[in-house]
Amino acid sequence: MKYLKKNVAFEPLICRWYAWPFLVSPATFAMVAKNRMIPLLESFIEDPDFHRESARDPALLGGTFIDFPGDVGLAEALLDKLKDDLHEQLAFADALVLANDLLIRDGNGGTLENLYEKMPKPLRGAVELGYDLNNNPSLRVFESLLYASSLYKPALQSVFLRLVTSEARPFVLTTPLIDASGGLLINAAFSDGIYDTLARSREQGLNEDEYHALKTELSGRAEGGERLDDYFTDEAPPRRYEQYDGDGMRVRYFGHATLLIDDGVTTIMSDPSVGYEGTAALDYYSFSDLPDRIDYVLITHNHQDHVLFEVLLQLRHKIGTIVVPKCHGGFVQDPSLKLVLEKAGFTSVVELDDLEVLPVPGGAITGLPFLGEHCDLHIRTKLGYQVELRGQRAMCLADSNNLDPVMYERLSRLLPNPDLIFIGMECTGGPMSWLYGDLLTRRLRREHDQSRRLNGSNFEKASRIVDQFKPSGVFVYAMGAEPWFTHITSILYNEQSPPIVESNKLIEHCRGRDVVAERLFGKREIVVADHRLRFT
Questions:
Q1: Which pLDDT tens digit goes with each residue over 299-323?
Q2: Is residue 161 over pLDDT 80?
Q3: In a 3-state reduction of DSSP, which class is residue 488?
């Protein structure tokens, strides 16, 4: 039998850029291509040394610099290909800017009916014009129509297989794959079943005939396919997962915001991220610690560190249903996560709304309102969750920012108190432009950009949630600090970093009230039975 090696990473790409939802949805992809992908490559080609030096400056980690030491000619070739492949997308982005200018100029409170025929051609038949109740005009796109058009090109999708080690992976969100010679590039849409075959082979292996068929298939669809043997081994991986057979429920922490919750019948995973085995010098769960089936996956919001195609594509064959926040639909800054995942090949995606309850065997999943961390933009696709199995409850709040404690007061009157609260405390998040700047049709004033940040709760805000719900245990996510996650977040904390200082205050606050509290890192197992905690 042949098994995919335990340290083979799947890097999902669109136009050779690391993929996240904004690169899948046609409208956001058009704006990112116009305002980030092409200008960044042009800037790198003009002054590669500036980019290389800046990318290696610890003070500039996560900045918009391309980190590529190789031949600039390869970057030039990639830029030329992008411009050739993306004519329609770039025209669509230009049309969004023109339409916005037209709405600002002529949307004065009167009817917008006469503006439909003035819309730029790429937008005709694909947008609705309207006002909010303060007479501010805007447009929304019909996302389903855009996916059904030539704007959506699955042929631009690929996955790069590379062997990873304990050496830190470079930050991937600003540097495309310019040189593919260091791995195996599979030119197939994310929905293609070949990724399920590869993912299954990590655990189940391939017999001689199956492996030969995979080789044959990749020979015509992959760059570097002749190196496939380098990514497989005859050695079967360890299988460490043991089904829970105790009372109550078990919660395992896999890193960042990822929990695996199960009661022996139902298995639920939040915001999946999984470290590759043998690539970090600490104890942690890997793919070998996952069950054969994950009944429900919960996605809290549409940010690149919570919707990881790199992991989701490897888990797709195990997942029953993905639960995502309900999207009001059509506003460019808030693409439908349901549509994104369906286009990526997930066949059972369910939207959940605030306080909507999804019954599951042995319990229920309840959607919770999610304030903050989205730069004051009207973005509906965000949700916390309360998971209940066998009468035990875990509240998963991800990066919720307690901007209005009265909301949690209201929730506490409607929900039974959780036994566990899990929350992130990245309270010094980036400015709006870091994540959403590419979508803007007009430049935001610097002082506004700096004030509207991707912040989660600090101590004061998080402690109010704890005091309101009085759980038995409070756990702060590692917030991207695990070594297998820094290629997504670029985060390097020290003891003086505000999220560490603030979470230390929360831990001390909880322990002063006889509440178990800690900041998670690497792995943790918690069993809750009869509303009592046990650590193993």
A1: 999 999 999 999 999 999 999 999 9
A2: yes
A3: helix
Q: For residue 158, what are the contacts with CB-CB under 8 A and spacing of at least 6?
A: 12, 13, 14, 16, 185, 186, 187, 188
Tell me which residue of 306, 469, 314 sits closest to 399, measured CA to CA: 306
Closest C-alpha among 495, 434, 478, 448 to residue 61: 434
Rounded to an integer, what distance in angstroms lies between the CA atom of residue 112 and that of residue 350?
34
Q: How many angstroms separate the CA atoms of 18 and 13, rounded?
A: 5
The residue among 370, 330, 329, 324 whose CA lies nearest residue 350 is 324
Residue 405: the pLDDT is 96
Task: Give residue-wise pLDDT tens across range 199-257.
Answer: 999 999 999 999 999 999 998 889 988 889 999 999 998 888 999 999 999 999 999 99
How far apart CA 95 and CA 88 sit, in angstroms, is 10
Question: Which phi and psi (to 5°) does residue 14 adopt?
Answer: -130, 120
Cβ atoms 512, 229 nearer than 8 A: no
Residues 295, 269: Cα–Cα separation, whole Å? 8
d(CA 22, CA 358): 27
Beta partners for residue 359, in sequence order:
364
Amino acid symbol at 255: G
SS3 22: helix
User: What separation in angstroms does the CA of 265 have from each of 242, 295, 434?
Assistant: 12, 9, 42
pLDDT band at 110 (very low <50, low <70, confident <90, very high): very high
| Cβ partners under 8 Å of residue 2, min gap 6 | 201, 205, 206, 207, 208, 211, 232, 233, 234
Q: Is 291's pLDDT higher than 80?
A: yes
> Mean pLDDT, the chain, as a whole number?
95
Q: Which two tokens stand for residue 440?
A: 């803007």
d(CA 381, CA 396): 16
Could you tell me how far CA 133 lies from the centroid of its own chain?
Answer: 32
Q: What is the DSSP letter of 403?
A: S
Query: Assign residue 240 a region: left if phi > 0, alpha if psi is -120 to 50, beta otherwise?
Result: alpha
How many helices (H) and strands (E) would you count in the chain? 17, 24
412 burial via Cβ count (<10 Å: 0-12, 13-18, 19+): middle
pTM above 0.85, yes or no: yes
The whole-number pLDDT of residue 485 equals: 87
Position 528 pLDDT exceeds 90: yes
d(CA 82, CA 75) in angstroms, rounded, equals: 10
